[in-house]
Amino acid sequence: MATDKELSDFLKSTEKRAFKRTAYAVRDEDAALDIVQDAMISLAEKYADRPIAELPLLFNRILSNATMDWFRRLKVRQGVLQNFSDIESSAEHGDFDLLESLEAVNVSWETQGPAERLSRTQTLELIEMQIAELPARQREAFLLRYWEELDTAETALVMGCSEGSVKTHCSRAVHALANALAAKGLKP
């Protein structure tokens, strides 16, 4: 059973990533904030008695379901059926902070010179734009696997699909990103 402090620490540690992921999906920062807050409240109310090790998977599933519920409500409110791809293409880019996922890099931002900082910032902006261009399911699988660091089985549970589908979505996302970045002159 998770203590109040463990639950609070978990929510603090995941809030920024959850917000970024949701903002990418709904393309509306205010809606994303509401969705994440609702998911956090739901986790705290319904699953606080679970072991701390179960919370990440539960929270990601709650967040995915809350995001899908938002799209369902949006469709009803607008009174018109819209393709998810229409919502994606008409929205502006979120402010995805890829630096959070690059903690393993030994070079500190403060020790880099201005030219290195500019180059790194431009590279990260280019990667952000390319991630935003991925199809929704590929982007979700990619972010869950490589940003949230969930394994294939956990990602499949969160996305509500098979492990094979997760592997396919991730593979396609990685190849699409590599090709797009290579076309822009960025090589691994």
Summarize the model shown.
It contains 8 helices and no strands. The chain is mainly alpha-helical and 188 residues long.
What does the secondary structure layout of this molecule look like, with pairings?
Layout: H1 4-26, H2 29-47, H3 55-78, H4 84-90, H5 114-133, H6 136-147, H7 152-159, H8 163-183
Helix pairs in contact: 1-2, 1-3, 2-3, 3-7, 5-8, 6-7, 6-8, 7-8
Describe this structure in words.
With 188 residues, this protein is mainly α. Helices cover 71% and strands 0% of the residues. The protein has eight helices and no strands. It starts with a helix and ends in a 5-residue tail after the last helix. About 16% of the residues have low confidence.
Strand content: under 5%
Rg, rounded, reads: 18 Å
- Biggest β-sheet strands, sense, barrel: none
Count of runs of 4 or more consecutive helical residues = 8
Global shape:
globular
Mean pLDDT: 79
Order of helices and strands: HHHHHHHH
Give the end-to-end Cα distance, rounded to a whole number of Å.
43 Å
Helix content: over 70%
Number of strands: 0
Find the structural class using helix and strand composition. mainly alpha
Uncertain segments: 79-109
Features:
single chain, 188 residues, mainly alpha, 8 helices, globular
